[in-house]
Design a protein that fits this description.
84 residues; mainly alpha; 2 helices; sodium; elongated
């Protein structure tokens, strides 16, 4: 019984040690690859973009008029719904 328990513990330690070593090597390899990619392939510089003005919707003058019209339509719909 004692022999079986010691074999189990040694197998557990060996397995956990192998996983720890593998994960440590994986972290170092990933870090090395990341540094190489940054060194040889720098991030592209962002292109300046021309900002376009927001187009007002067809038939209305400005954003305030659009909001007033929207409030009126919603108010009418709520009033009609409640009057049933």
């Amino acid at each position: 019984m004692e022999n079986l328990l010691s074999e189990g513990v040694s197998l557990m330690v060996f397995g956990m040690g192998f996983v720890f070593v593998f994960l440590t090597l994986l972290v170092f390899a990933t870090s090395l690859m990341s540094k190489l990619v940054v060194k040889y392939q720098p991030a592209p510089e962002p292109k300046p973009s021309a900002r376009k003005a927001a187009k007002p919707s067809a038939g209305t003058g400005s954003a305030a008029a659009t909001n007033d019209e929207l409030v009126a339509v919603i108010s009418a719909a709520v009033h009609k719904y409640r009057s049933r």
